[in-house]
Design brief:
The protein is of the alpha/beta class. The protein contains 23 helices and 18 strands.
């Protein structure tokens, strides 16, 4: 019944507990011929019933005068193989060696079974295209080197463990840690299925815990101590598994040390229909850099903030300089960097006045952000200064014979970059003059999009504390600082006001504030694409598919950040912006970024860190992949309005 339900859900693999055909806690009854006959009849029935979905069940099977604790793989009316248990627990409440022989005592690696000759070994995996399944039985995962390790090196991307692990206090948590560790170090999906209701409670009890992890990330868990039989589903990302394995060269290097063992693993091919299924059981986070769970987010913010602070502290110690210079605009990035500077000085037991903070109004600086900058500097106790850059900018614009210097309202990229350059130029010369170094404020999101002025501009500093922190996480860290009350209630009030301000470079004058997101597109989508591109290496179609699941509604995923929904046309429109800027126009800026500490799993874009790429590479492969994605979506979409929008994108 449960298998039929799994098939109806288009499951690719369905795993049941150890010895589920007979029951685990049978002791000497396992040797009875009557039980053996019943098990073979049941397996014959299951074999005939086996469909496209790979079915893994546990049964006691006798071969060559020995009884083995086995997992049996069935699919499309065939037995693909039998996996005998390798390691038999025979301590405390376990007495398996009384009944069973371990896998190493088998006579042959093939046996006759239900009219077929099938593999009979723990060294076997079952492959159908990208889907490659390994299997082991209960205790096998508890030993230092489980059979599944070699299975993974041979290509298994999913490992199923058929278990009948009794429950004792604290054991469920340990099981979960064990499964998580196996999934993480083997870069696989590890699905653990344990026996529950119906097993004998003569001397032990059972909780029926099923757990699924992917590369160390939790996917699903069954309810424990359930009265009724349950199915636990998960959507597994096989692309992600392949990417993680191919990136970590030490994983395959370690496998080479066990080459003989890996070569023994037999690959059994099977065919199955590839049926498109919706992403039903997987939660795709809108913000890969920002956990939706409050406790996890607090921990992320704590670690982010302290990594930045410790990095700056060490740079100050190594340089011998005791003063910092920073430009403060009243926006998110400079606010966050200023908080890091203050905390670093506190750790070094230096006065906060050693932070020389400058607000540097230009042609479009708003009264609100300027007042916030001034107020925050004062309340944090740093050395607060105002330096108007407009006179020096006007000199440069005249030198350039720029139309603005003649009274014309021309606000082009030169007009903007003159201001950004003058700010940085002043900060560097102030650092020379004051015996200090310049702390950079630009963040990971801006660096990915090239949203910074190259060279003598906000691209450059002596040390960039924010360069590995995305825009969305910066907002969360500022809120965490408020909640932690590190800087006192008066400064907290200013921080709260800054969090509510529209993100803007404030470089172009006008009645309407210059909006960064109006120019670039939503940072939420760009940060999402950045993670899928650099951390996962996914193609545009896969990234867009995931984005559509993440942003299909505005269901809150954060108590701090605004949640927005985006339709397919918006996702693909802004994806092209990201891909073009990231791969074509901005790598030269990342090739020569200042030093900065790597903060998160999503990484750093420094060529000395996570991301190395030529500055003159072509973006043509991503452009063509994006065009194919748009064309496919347009041709298969039923909504006429969406088709028109996709047609406009395709040009």
């Amino acid at each position: 019944k449960l298998y039929k339900e799994a098939c109806a859900q288009q499951s690719a693999v369905c795993c049941f507990p150890e010895l589920c055909v007979s029951g685990y806690a049978l002791d000497d009854l396992l040797q009875q011929d009557a039980l053996q006959e019943e098990c073979l009849e049941a397996l014959s029935t299951l074999k005939r019933a086996a469909k496209d979905c790979l079915l893994l069940v546990g049964a006691p099977l006798r071969f060559d005068g020995r009884l083995f604790n086995c997992a049996v793989a069935l699919q499309n009316g065939r037995c693909l193989g039998i996996i005998p248990k390798s390691y038999l627990p025979n301590f405390r409440e376990f007495y398996e060696a009384r009944q069973f022989a371990p896998a190493r005592l088998r006579v042959s690696s093939e046996v006759a079974f239900l009219g077929e000759t099938v593999p009979f070994t723990p060294d076997v995996i079952f492959r159908s295209g990208q889907l490659c399944v390994g299997c082991e039985v209960c205790q096998d995962v508890w030993v230092p080197t489980p059979p599944s390790t070699a299975q993974c090196w041979r290509g298994a991307t999913i490992v199923c463990n058929l278990s009948a692990s009794n429950i004792t206090i604290g054991k469920a948590a340990y099981r979960s840690q064990l499964v998580q560790s196996m999934a993480a170090k083997n870069y696989c999906c590890y699905a653990y299925c344990s026996a529950g209701q119906g097993e004998s409670t003569n001397d032990v009890a059972w909780d029926g815990q099923s757990i699924i992890y992917e590369c160390g990330d939790f996917l699903a868990q069954s309810p424990r101590f359930a009265e009724d039989a349950t199915l636990t589903y998960a959507d597994v990302d096989l692309d992600r598994i392949e990417q993680d394995r191919s990136r970590d060269a030490t994983w395959s290097q370690n496998g080479a040390d066990f080459a003989d063992q890996v070569r023994r693993v037999r690959v059994v091919e099977f065919s199955r229909q590839s049926v498109p299924t919706p992403l039903t059981y997987r939660v795709v986070e809108k913000r890969p850099y920002v956990p939706s769970d409050k406790a996890d987010l607090d921990q992320r913010c704590y670690e982010c903030y302290n990594i930045q602070v410790s990095g700056l502290v060490q740079r100050m110690r190594s340089s011998g300089l005791k003063k910092l210079v920073i430009g403060v605009s009243g926006g998110l990035d400079s606010t966050h960097a200023l908080l890091v500077c203050v905390q670093a000085l506190d750790k070094l037991k230096l006065p906060r006045s050693n932070c020389l903070a400058y607000t540097m109004p230009g042609f479009a600086t708003g009264d609100k952000t300027k007042s916030y900058a001034t107020e925050l500097m004062e309340r944090l106790g740093v050395s607060a200064h105002e330096l108007d850059i407009r006179p020096s900018c006007e000199v440069m614009l005249r030198d350039l014979n720029h139309p603005y210097s003649k009274g014309e309202p021309v606000y082009d990229v030169t007009f903007e970059n003159v201001q950004a350059g003058e700010r940085t130029n002043h900060l560097f010369r102030l650092a020379n003059h004051q015996g200090a170094f310049v702390v950079g404020t630009g963040d990971l999101s801006e660096l990915a999009l090239g949203w910074c002025t190259y060279g003598v501009g906000d691209h450059m500093s002596h040390y960039g504390v924010n360069a590995s922190v995305p825009k969305s996480l910066i907002q969360c860290v500022i809120q965490w600082v408020i909640d932690s009350n590190f800087v006192g209630p008066e400064a907290n009030d200013v921080l709260a006001k800054i969090l509510s301000v529209e993100i803007s470079p404030e470089l172009i004058p006008g009645a309407v504030i210059q909006s960064t997101e109006d120019t670039l597109g939503p940072y939420d989508l760009h940060d999402f694409q950045l993670y899928q591109t650099t951390r996962r290496g996914f193609a545009p179609a896969k990234s867009a598919f995931l984005a559509m699941h993440a942003f299909r509604d505005s269901t809150p995923s954060s108590s701090i950040l605004e949640d927005r929904a985006f339709d397919l046309v918006e996702v693909l429109k802004h994806q092209r912006t990201f891909l073009r800027r990231f791969f074509l126009t901005s790598q030269f800026k990342r090739t020569c970024v200042p030093n900065a500490p790597k903060v998160g799993d999503g990484g750093s874009l420094s060529p000395r860190g996570d991301w190395r790429a030529p500055s003159d590479s072509s973006w043509a492969p991503w452009e063509r992949a994006w065009q194919r994605c748009v064309a496919w979506a347009r041709d298969t979409c039923d909504d006429a309005e969406v088709r028109r929008g996709l047609g406009a994108l395709a040009g």
